[in-house]
C-alpha cells in the first residue's frame, strides 16, 4: 500500500506530522479496547513503527485516520487473541492468573450462583408492569422506546418503572 499523504511534504516530515497529530488518538483507541496503559502504548508504537518501516504515506487526513483506526483495532485484536492463547496455555500448565483462578474457584462459582439466585428472586417480586419492563430491558436488551411501543405506554412511564425496579433491586440486594 503506497499512498501519498501530501505532494508538498517529504516522507519524513509527513510521518512526523502524522505521528504528532494522531498518536494520542491511536493510543486512546488502543487503551479503550485493551484497558492497559502499557499495552496500549506498545500497540500504538507498533502501529507507527510499521508505518515508518513500510514508508507508508497517505493521500489525505481522512485516509490516514481510517488506516490508523483499523490498525489499532487489529493490533488490539491480535494482542487479545495472543493473550487468550497464553492464558489457555497457562491453564494447561498450571500457571493460572488470578482472574482464571477466581473463575474456576468453587467458592466464587457458588457466590456468583447465589447472587444470581437472589437477583432472580427479587425480580420475581417486582410489581407489574415494572417486572415486565425490567425483563424486556435487561434480558431482551430492548430500548425504552421499543418497550414503550410494545406495551403501548410512554417512554417516561417506562423510565419511571425502570427507576423503581432498579431502586427496589438495589435496596433488596444491598440492604
User: How many strand segments?
Assistant: 0
Number of helices: 8
CATH topology of the largest domain: Rna Polymerase Sigma Factor, Chain: A
Unreliable spans: 1-6
Number of domains: 2
Indicate the mean pLDDT.
Answer: 80
What is the string of helix and strand elements?
HHHHHHHH
What is the CATH class designation of the largest domain?
Mainly Alpha
Beta-strand portion reads under 5%
Q: Architecture of the largest domain in CATH?
A: Orthogonal Bundle
Oligomer: single chain
Helix content: over 70%
* Helix-and-strand structural type: mainly alpha
What is the overall shape? Answer: elongated
Alpha carbon gap, first and last residue: 60 Å
* Radius of gyration over C-alpha positions, nearest whole angstrom: 25 Å
Q: Biggest β-sheet, characterized?
A: none
Domain RNA polymerase sigma-70 region: 18-84
Pfam families: Sigma70_r2, Sigma70_r4_2
Domain RNA polymerase sigma factor 70 region 4 type: 118-169
Keywords: Sigma factor, Transcription, Transcription regulation
Amino acid at each position: 500500500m503506497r499512498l501519498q499523504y501530501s505532494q508538498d511534504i517529504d516522507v519524513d516530515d509527513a510521518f512526523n506530522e502524522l505521528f504528532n497529530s494522531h498518536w494520542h488518538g491511536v493510543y486512546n483507541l488502543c487503551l479503550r479496547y485493551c484497558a492497559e496503559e502499557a499495552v496500549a502504548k506498545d500497540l500504538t508504537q507498533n502501529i507507527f513503527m510499521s508505518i515508518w518501516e513500510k514508508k507508508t504515506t497517505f493521500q489525505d487526513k481522512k485516509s490516514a485516520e481510517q488506516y490508523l483506526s483499523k490498525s489499532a483495532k487489529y493490533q488490539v485484536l491480535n494482542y487479545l487473541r495472543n493473550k487468550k492463547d497464553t492464558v489457555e496455555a497457562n491453564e494447561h500448565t498450571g500457571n493460572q492468573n488470578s482472574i482464571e483462578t477466581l473463575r474456576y474457584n468453587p467458592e466464587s462459582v457458588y457466590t456468583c450462583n447465589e447472587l444470581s439466585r437472589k437477583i432472580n428472586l427479587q425480580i420475581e417480586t417486582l410489581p407489574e408492569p415494572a417486572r415486565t419492563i425490567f425483563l424486556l430491558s435487561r434480558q431482551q436488551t430492548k430500548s425504552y422506546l421499543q418497550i414503550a411501543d410494545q406495551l403501548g405506554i410512554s417512554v417516561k412511564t417506562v423510565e419511571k418503572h425502570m427507576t423503581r425496579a432498579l431502586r427496589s433491586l438495589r435496596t433488596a440486594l444491598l440492604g
